[in-house]
Write a structure and sequence with these properties.
With 63 residues, the chain is α+β, with helices and mostly antiparallel strands. It is built from two helices and four strands.
Length: 63
């Protein structure tokens, strides 16, 4: 599984980056992107980030 961020809808609030920095970072444009694979260790925090996203632009998908 992996996380994806719809960067066009991202408002760069930073919630996902602070909730799960192993998976989410800010890119050069200043919006969030998912750059890490989901593991058993970080899945719960990535899921929390997805659920808390105020603009609902994070998705967790099967590869």
């Amino acid at each position: 599984m992996k996380a994806e961020v719809d960067q066009e809808g991202c408002i760069a609030c930073g919630l996902c980056v602070s909730t799960c920095p192993e998976v989410f970072t800010f890119n050069e444009e200043g919006v969030a992107e998912a750059n890490g694979q989901l593991t058993d260790d970080n899945f719960a925090s990535a899921e929390s980030a997805r659920n808390a996203c105020p603009v609902e632009v994070i998705d967790i998908v099967d590869e």
